[in-house]
């Protein structure tokens, strides 16, 4: 399988209305459109006639009409010329579907499993999109290690002077990489501690698993009693973060955020009124990540020559699976073949 063979969230469904929209996946331009009956079409964004962008055209019934000469194309890519009816034309097409508030796209030849995002019993807080001006691997690196949280984030993560006390553990399969972090949390303030249900001396748990078909990470966040792990915070979070390569130097991150409250209160355990505040806070924290990655001195994806810490093992593990599972490579990436020395 190659990069285009996996499902990718491309566009919020609410943005695809009467006009087609141009997007890009792994450097391939795609024209998305919604027909009169509501069917979603995804065509290579170049008219086979004179190379006009099909995303600049308009939807006419069940077809997308090119702005330049009025040629029309169905969702299957089959085209017609009004001036030369017997001329057969075909635009490359992709499989598309609408789910979880997004338009998803993949190649029409592949048959991967569609990712399951729904969380029964959990409250959907928000869905966010952020664009990072960096390659896929470099963008992912930031979200797959916890060491940056003391200096980058406001309330998320761990205290800088207690990072030595944070434990990290890695588990891997051929198709996943799991990272489990636990340690003394940042100070949230008395009110927030009460609302979330955090007690003095508790630790923050950041447990995530990255999947590679499609490319996404599921994060679980909660606080717990280090002496009795069954005693957990009253509010817990789960994030689904999908990484979509726009091109070699641009990555879009789409995040679904869910929360669960164990407080015996109405309206989702009392968290519904705080939905707007939580959305703004997550968006703010994500923008801090984006700013850090955008301002790296180098966006070279090769890890060779870097001095990596005990928190960075996932960087190499991810690259191995990105190359083998996501890109469909038969060999490991050069940076993954290198024996990386991780500081203890």
TrEMBL record:
Identify the Pfam families for this entry.
Rieske (PF00355), VanA_C (PF19112)
Q: Which keywords, in A-to-Z order, does the entry hold?
A: 2Fe-2S, Iron, Iron-sulfur, Metal-binding, Oxidoreductase
SUPFAM superfamilies the UniProt entry points to: Bet v1-like, ISP domain
InterPro entries in UniProt: Cholesterol_7-desaturase, Rieske_2Fe-2S, Rieske_2Fe-2S_sf, VanA_C_cat
Does the keyword field hold Iron-sulfur?
yes
Molecular function via GO? 2 iron, 2 sulfur cluster binding; metal ion binding; oxidoreductase activity
Domain (Rieske) ranges: 7-105
The name under which this protein is listed is Rieske 2Fe-2S domain-containing protein
The organism of origin for this protein = Telmatocola sphagniphila
What high-level taxonomic lineage is stated for the organism?
A: Bacteria, Pseudomonadati, Planctomycetota, Planctomycetia, Gemmatales
């Amino acid at each position: 399988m190659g990069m285009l063979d996996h499902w990718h969230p491309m566009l919020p469904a609410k943005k695809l209305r009467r006009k087609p929209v141009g997007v890009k996946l792994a450097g391939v331009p795609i024209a998305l459109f919604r027909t009169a009956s509501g069917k979603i079409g995804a065509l290579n964004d170049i008219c086979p006639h004179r190379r006009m962008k099909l995303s600049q055209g308009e939807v006419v019934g069940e077809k997308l009409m090119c702005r330049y000469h009025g040629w029309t194309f169905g969702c299957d890519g089959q085209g017609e010329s009004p001036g030369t009816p017997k001329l057969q034309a075909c635009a490359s097409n992709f499989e598309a579907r609408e789910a979880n508030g997004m338009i998803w796209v993949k190649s029409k030849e592949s048959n991967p499993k569609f990712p399951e995002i729904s969380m029964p019993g959990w409250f959907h807080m928000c869905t966010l999109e952020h664009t990072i001006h960096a390659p896929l691997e470099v963008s992912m690196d930031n979200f797959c290690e916890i060491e940056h949280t003391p200096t980058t984030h406001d309330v998320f993560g761990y205290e800088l002077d207690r990072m030595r006390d944070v434990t990290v553990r890695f588990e891997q399969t051929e198709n996943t990489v799991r990272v489990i972090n636990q340690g003394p949390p940042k100070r949230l303030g008395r009110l927030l501690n009460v609302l979330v249900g955090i007690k003095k001396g508790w630790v923050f748990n950041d447990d995530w698993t990255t999947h590679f078909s499609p490319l996404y990470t599921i994060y679980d966040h909660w606080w717990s009693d280090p002496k009795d792990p069954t005693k957990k915070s009253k509010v817990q979070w789960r994030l689904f973060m999908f990484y979509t390569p726009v091109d070699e130097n641009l990555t879009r991150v789409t995040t679904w955020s869910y929360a669960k409250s164990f407080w015996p209160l109405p309206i989702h355990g009392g968290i519904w009124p705080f939905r707007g505040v939580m959305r703004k806070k997550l968006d703010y924290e994500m923008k801090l990540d984006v700013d850090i990655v955008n301002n790296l001195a180098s966006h070279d994806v090769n890890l060779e020559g870097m001095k990596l810490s005990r928190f960075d093992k996932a960087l190499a593990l991810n690259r191995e699976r990105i190359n083998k599972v996501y890109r469909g490579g038969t060999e490991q990436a050069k940076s993954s073949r290198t024996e990386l020395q991780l500081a203890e």
